[in-house]
């Protein structure tokens, strides 16, 4: 099973640690594509910082984000699960998982990254600022870049297991699971109130974090979307299963309280 997460917009920079070494990351097949993004981002931010503010959508009150990108190659690194922060990662709380669940997270969970394509939770990376919908000079559209290069890494990471795809729309465009749709589950969280259902962004992220945490702690290793739905139900969630589409089987997690 591979659980695929979106990155967080906010990141916690490492205070100390060795600099980035692409050879230490999982999925070395992605390293040429990773190096191109790192080089383009460093070049933009180190030589044209004013342009970088506009290109990267960085608030003018946070010029330190441009400087961080400019020094990406030599900045301190930390485990990805300490770099990525925000609602989903707070709810997942990797640091407080049981030892067995931490081992499962290390092998089964990966994060979609605009800079690195895919990273494991134990991969050491620096903090960076690059959204998935950016058009980066020297690279072009980040989504198009990874659509052209991410496939071999996804194939290696997934193997013959189930893909649990929790990416947001921006990062889902990096790679489409059409060839493995029969063993792909996408998860949507719906808040039901007074007979009406809607997606609430903040709560959607938090619930996805809790879902992943519960799944890792349970030790369940489903191999089909149907078995994944059963595992979530066994953990106390209300789940509705949709039809198989070209991007997989949609599982709706229906919750009554935010």
From TrEMBL:
Q: What Pfam families does the annotation carry?
A: H2O2_YaaD
GO BP terms = response to hydroperoxide
**Record's InterPro entries?**
YaaA
Q: Which GO terms describe its cellular component?
A: cytosol
PANTHER family membership? PEROXIDE STRESS RESISTANCE PROTEIN YAAA, PEROXIDE STRESS RESPONSE PROTEIN YAAA
Q: What is this protein called?
A: Peroxide stress protein YaaA
């Amino acid at each position: 099973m591979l659980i695929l997460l979106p990155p967080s917009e906010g990141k916690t920079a490492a205070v100390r640690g060795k600099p980035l070494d692409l050879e230490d990351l999982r999925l070395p097949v992605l390293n040429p594509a990773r190096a191109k993004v790192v080089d383009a981002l460093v070049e933009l931010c180190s030589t044209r910082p004013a342009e970088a503010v506009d290109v990267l959508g960085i608030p003018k009150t946070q010029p330190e984000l441009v400087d961080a990108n400019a020094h990406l190659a030599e900045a301190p690194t930390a485990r990805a699960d300490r770099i990525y922060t925000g609602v989903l990662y707070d709810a997942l709380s990797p640091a407080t998982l049981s030892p067995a669940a931490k081992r499962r997270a290390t092998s089964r969970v990966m994060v979609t990254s605009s800079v690195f394509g895919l990273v494991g939770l134990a991969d050491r990376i620096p903090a960076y600022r690059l959204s998935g919908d950016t058009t980066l000079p020297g690279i072009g559209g980040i989504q198009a870049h990874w659509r052209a290069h991410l496939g071999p890494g996804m194939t290696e990471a997934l193997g013959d297991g189930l893909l649990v795809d929790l990416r947001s729309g921006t990062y889902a465009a990096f790679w489409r699971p059409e060839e493995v749709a029969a063993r792909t589950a996408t998860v949507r969280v719906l808040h039901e109130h007074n007979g009406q259902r809607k997606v609430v962004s903040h709560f959607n992220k938090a619930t996805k974090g809790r879902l992943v945490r519960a799944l890792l702690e349970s030790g369940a290793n489903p191999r089909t979307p149907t078995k994944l739905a059963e595992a979530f139900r066994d953990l106390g969630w209300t789940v509705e299963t949709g039809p198989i589409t070209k991007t997989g089987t949609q599982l709706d997690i229906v919750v009554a309280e935010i």
